[in-house]
Every structure is written in C-alpha cells, then in structure tokens.
C-alpha cells in the first residue's frame, strides 16, 4: 500500500514499519532491512538521545511540543531487532554517525570544517552507540550516515577471535 493510502477511510501510518514513501523511495522504518538483488541493506532511523533510548514508542499523533522532538529518537528495541539478524549485511544506513567512528580516520579535514567536533570527540558525545554496536555486529561493507552534514571517510577493521581479519567497513 502506498504512502497516504486509505484503509477503511483512515490514513495508513507506515512510519514505524516502513514502506513506500514514493514510487521510487522505500523507507526501512525505524529499524529494518531489505534484500535488493543480492545486496542486503539494513538501517536504524533516528537520532540517539540517552534519555529516550530506553523508552517505548509512546508518541502519538497529534504531536505536542515534547513528542515532536522525541518521536525521531532511536529506541533500544529497534537496535535490538537488528542485533538479531543472523546474516551479515552489505550496507548499513543510520542517521547518526556510529560512536567512535573518528578513531578510524584522519580527522584534520573534519576539524577544519567542523571545529566543534574536536570537543565532542574528546568529550565522548559525538555519535550513536547503538549504531557502533550494529556496525561491529553486522560488519557491513559500507556504512552511510548523514546527521553531521559533511563528508567524512573512515575504514573500520573488524576483529574476530582477537585477530584482525580482512573484514572492513568503509
């Protein structure tokens, strides 16, 4: 059913589970994955907020001043669903950068354009811990995140059994 379709006169809300947003754009939902040909794509939507992370999906339309901000926060149970995928994925999508991603790249160019990121990295406030856990568990070949609105390239080496393997996430 397409976005905005009516079922028994009511709008169908696909915001949680995902669905077709337009004919050529598929929303994975708050946490989901799809297989496109031989490519497995998984994603975690939202911005990490420690206060709301462990709360359930309590927001309901129409949103008020508090819920309009919290409705798009990452929830623990959404990350938990993806942690139970048994197969590795090829591409991981997240709104927030994975926590600690700056440890896997040269940050000089980043700091030249986003000076405040240096303080956030030193304070341990840059990035999403659940996205980092999913990156380590699912070991995707590629990870794309957009929250910080700049290009930043990193290469994460994955370890298995205490030794570095040839498994990388770019």
* Order of secondary-structure elements: EEEEEEHHHEHHHEEE
Overall SS class = alpha/beta
Tell me the overall shape.
globular
Helix content range:
10-25%
Q: Helical region count?
A: 6
| Biggest sheet character | 4 strands, mixed
GO molecular function, one term: RNA lariat debranching enzyme activity
Organism: Gossypium mustelinum
InterPro entries: Metallo-depent_PP-like
Protein name: Lariat debranching enzyme C-terminal domain-containing protein
Could you write a compact summary of the structure shown?
By secondary structure, the chain is an alpha/beta fold. The protein is built from six helices and ten strands, in the order E-E-E-E-E-E-H-H-H-E-H-H-H-E-E-E. Helix content is 24%, strand content 25%.
Describe the overall structure.
- The chain is an alpha/beta fold and 170 residues long.
- It has helices at residues 50-53, 67-70, 76-83, 108-113, 116-123, 129-138; strands at residues 6-7, 10-11, 19-22, 25-27, 31-36, 39-44, 91-94, 142-145, 156-160, 163-169.
- It is 24% helix and 25% strand.
- The chain is built from six helices and ten strands; from the N terminus they run ββββββαααβαααβββ.
- The protein has one domain.
- The relative contact order is 0.14.
- Helix 3 (76-83) runs parallel beside helix 6 (129-138).
- Strand 1 (6-7) and strand 2 (10-11) form a beta hairpin.
